[in-house]
Design brief:
Layout (H helix, E strand, L loop, with lengths): L8 H12 L6 E6 L6 E6 L3 H18 L1
Antiparallel strand pairs: 1-2
Helix pairs in contact: 1-2
């Protein structure tokens, strides 16, 4: 079984950079599901377009890493 993408330093750093785009007015939470073979991405913030963009960016980065 390969390592989780969430153990990859490049992915971790990318997630942190994406969260910085929220300027302290939101948060990003990414974790492995406890019941399914998937990764859950939650983004909270003030602007819907920004949070959707961040979630999509993280999703693409994780998918590309696999």
């Amino acid at each position: 079984d390969s390592k989780s993408p969430l153990e990859n330093k490049e992915i971790i750093d990318f997630i942190k950079k994406e969260e910085e785009k929220l300027n302290g007015k939101g948060r990003v939470f990414v974790r492995k599901s406890g019941t399914e073979k998937l990764i859950r991405i939650m983004v909270e913030g003030e602007d819907q377009k920004t949070i959707e963009t961040i979630a999509n960016n993280i999703s693409r980065k994780i998918l590309k890493a696999n």
